[in-house]
Design brief:
Length: 209
Amino acid sequence: MANREPDPNTVRSKARARRGMILALWWGVVLLGLFAISSGGPPLLIVPVILIGIIVASNTLVVVRGTGPEQQALAPGRLIQADDHDDPVTVSATRAPRRNASDRTRRSGELRYEQRRLRFTFHEGRQSRSDAAKPFDPTDEVTVFDVAPKQIQLGSRPTMARPALSLTIDGTLHVIEFSPPMDLGAGVVGAIVSAAWHDQLLERGARIG
């Protein structure tokens, strides 16, 4: 069997490796819980072990299907490539609600970098799984921001504790997350994906707030 070629996208490769570590750890927790139950452990363990098992299994399916945030991680120099070769970047993301904000709704949409501008859009009628079956209506697209990097004030570089990408535009804070709800790797994997955007936007002219 031929050896698999190394992934040229080192950011994606790193995120995938971290995802594998996280899943291995959580599968270990599930197996340990099952062993404890089968060895006469307290029946109260059954419910949490089942719930954790369901979450871990769903996270594993995301990896198998190739729909995790690590799959769309920016390769080094990707935004420069977008500018130099008219090769836009579009990834799935979520604009998370801000603390103490009146609107606490999460908006699932797309973060796009094209022609030296960063844009986040979402479709008002497609914010749940049931909405996905509705006919596509381009008129319900909402543009949250559409700015040049030099108009962006970046927050702190994403970390495991704060894995989201923070952008302040015209005095408004936008928190962009790349990991879906119930993602066990949201901290580790999400931080890697967000940090790549942070670093490359900084290269394109954004500034640290």
